[in-house]
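Note to self: keep these together.
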Amino acid sequence: MLASALTRESLGPLADLPLFPPTASAQAQGIDQLYFFLVAVSAVMTIIIFAAIIWFAFKYHRNRNPRATQIEGSTKLELTWSILPFLIMLIMFWWGTRIFFANAQPPKDAMEIFVTGKQWMWKIQYPDGGREIDELHVPVGQPVKLTMASEDVIHSFSIPAFRIKHDVVPGHYDALWFTATKPGHYHLFCTEYCGTGHATMIGWVDVLDKRDYDAWQSGAGKQGTLAEKGQQQFEQHGCSTCHLLDQQGRCPNLRGLYNKPVLLADGQTVIADDAYIRESILDPNAKVAAGFEPGVMPVFKGQISEEAVIQLIAFIKSLSPNTPASQQGSQQPPIVIAPRAPGDSSTSTSNASRTPANSQPQ
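Structure:
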């Protein structure tokens, strides 16, 4: 009778309130299982604790025990309530660690999409040059890696249906990945208070099957790929004047650079990944390549947007077509850059051949 009374009409707005978000990614099931395990352990422990409180309150009530009785401890009991919770916590730690490391390592074949958080919107850039605001289109069954940056304050990128959430902190790149398993239309949120318009920083994720995704891609208006836009930025900001691509100029040659180890002026070796290239664009004096002087390249911090930096990095990546984005390059020898001798203005092929093709942005 009660069930018949609880119709959609009687519930009103509550009828459309989901008790749990849909499960729409490969990672979601494992995270849900861990979550329900934590809830079950918490519920069982809560029941045990309150049952013990009620039982002790009843058994040792002052009406039944007007005079206190000294009770000696039990070693077996103390070992039990110490070891069992410890083992349960170890299971939680092991389970959570497995999920954490699995979610921290995107597959090598993951499609990379770039996300920029800005008060109060999410800007999406695709490798083929497509751009969107507050909307993300992904194919079903394809691993997707999101490389994220913030233009202003701390944001937090969250898709509840995929069980993913990651803070996007200004000053460096953050990344997460997922594999969508169900076509659909899913909510996208910023879950970190980021100012007065925080509540409006929402969007949608459209998961499409292969045919629909290909149709969407072909219909999306594009003006060149991300790498081509990066090349335009490269020429627009005068980078091509010093970073020559066919020989050694005043600044390092960028061809073949991406994901290679590079020797710095202080003797350290770094990997020329996205984060390092970004830092070298915005603050070129932070890590200067061996053989080059600081102060040659202008500082672009505050002069260029995160979207433009992403495009420049895509262009630099395109100069190393045989180097997969997931490769770390740690097994390769460091690149030592040898600049031209002062006064040498030769641009001959023989002179360029004496200089390593791989180098690093200053």
